[in-house]
Amino acid sequence: MELDYPGPAPRRDDLQAALRLALGRAELQLLYQPLVDLRNGAVASLEALLRWPQPPPELRGALGDWLLRRTCHDRLLWRSDNLSGSDLQVAINVAPWQLDDPQFGPAVAAVLAEFAIPPGALTLELNEATLMRDPARSDAVLAWFKQRGACLTLDDFGSGDSCLGHLQRYPFDLIKLAGACVAGVALDAGDAAFCKAVIAMAHNLGLRVAAQGVDSEAQCDFLRRHMCDLVQGACFAPPLAPDAIAQLLRDDRRLPPHLLRTPARRRSLLLVDDEKNIVASLKRLLRPDGYDLYSAASGEEGLELLARLPIDVIISDQRMPGLSGADFLRQARVLRPETIRIMLSGYTELQSVTDAVNEGAIYKFLTKPWNDEQLRAHVGEAFRLKEIADDNQRLHLEVRTANHELASANRRMEQLLHQMQRQIHRDEISLGIAREILQHLPLPVIGMDDAGMIAFINGAAERVFSGAALLGAEAGVALPALLPPAGQTAGHHTLIGGVRYAVMVYPMGEHSASRGSLIILSRFEENA
Question: Which residue among 194, 277, 451, 481 sits deepest, i.e. has the most Cβ atoms within 10 Å of its Cβ?
Answer without folding.
Answer: 194
